[in-house]
Amino acid sequence: MRALYFEEHGSFENLKLGERPDPKPGPGEVVIGLQAAAFNHLDLFVLRGLPGIPIPLPHIGGADGAGVVVAVGPGVSNVQEGEAVVFNPGIWCGQCEFCRKGEHSLCVAYGIVGEHTDGTFAQYVKVKAEACFPKPAHMSWEEAAAFPLTFLTAWRMLFTRARLQAGETVLIHGIGGGVAQAATILARQAQAAVIVTSADDAKLEKAKTLGAELTINYTREDVARKVRELTSKRGVDVVVETVGKATWMSSLRSVAKGGRIVTCGATTGPDPTEEIRLIFWNQLSILGSTMGNQREFADMLSVVCEKKLKPLVDRVFPLGDGVAAYRYLAEGRQFGKVVLAIRDGA
Questions:
Q1: Which of 44, 79, 156, 327 could link 292 by a cystine bridge, Cβ 3.0 to 4.6 Å?
Q2: 217 and 93 belong to one structural domain
Q3: Do 19 and 120 belong to one domain?
Q4: pTM of the predicted model as reported, rounded to 2 decimal places
Q5: What values do phi and psi take at 271, rounded to 5?
Q6: Residue 50: partners with Cβ closer than 8 Å, 6 or more residues away
Q7: What is the domain count for the chain?
Q8: In whole angstroms, what is the distance from residue 289 CA to residue 240 CA?
Q9: What are phi and psi of 125, to 5 degrees?
Q10: Residue 293 within a domain
Q11: 148-155 and 294-307 helices cross at what angle (nearest 10)?
């Protein structure tokens, strides 16, 4: 099969477009002929190399994809060849105490497609059959490839971990990111008020089309001070944290007494300045969140299909221009998902 892969960690010059072995399904697995695949910031981290996480080389990146099942392994009954599917990009063992409780993203052997196994930047990908769900009929292939990881992550953050309620206010940092955009769409669908931040006025204007009611350009205004002003000094009920080091103190100072900060990532660094007194004095809840379980994926997908919610797709590249797509993602100019079109393998 044709694939975009690398044999050594490092820069974009390490990426190659060429032939890799076709995957074969084992027990409980399927092979999907991909029509489209989508990028996440995780793909940049995997290319550079993640400390403490051994990644078999050569490696194909990409966690998200959508396509048609072309091969089914032994013991598979939930999907058949020819079905159009999307999938939960998580990998779990199915046997540990957390898996037995249905908490797949807490699995002791948890991983992510495209990080711990070969991913979707190829003509075919092998995944757990259990992870597959019917492709939303209202979405194009590119849209279907673009929503699983970010929408699942945002769903667990908002509703399972932070327990967001209608009428509450949410602060979402960095509206250019995929999880931030998914969180905005889902929070508004849940009838919460949304404040978003960015350094780019154009992105802030676009955020209003997603339902953001208030926007803050953090290059011109102190975020925490502005949040207090916008909320009559109260602060927000929930902060969605994906940025880490650059925004952590703003998050601590923006949240209301008894509020919740839920974090799933640290794109600017994992070692922020801390002020523990704000946490205990204001009785804040700091909540970690990673991906989501199968029940959450099914619940999220049901709402997405019922309400015809869609991810934003910023730009589509052919597989043959995959290196350019990596570079474009790294530049951070996109508003929406960067997607590879794979249907013709070009």
A1: 156
A2: no
A3: yes
A4: 0.95
A5: -125, 65
A6: 115
A7: 2
A8: 10
A9: -140, 145
A10: no
A11: 110
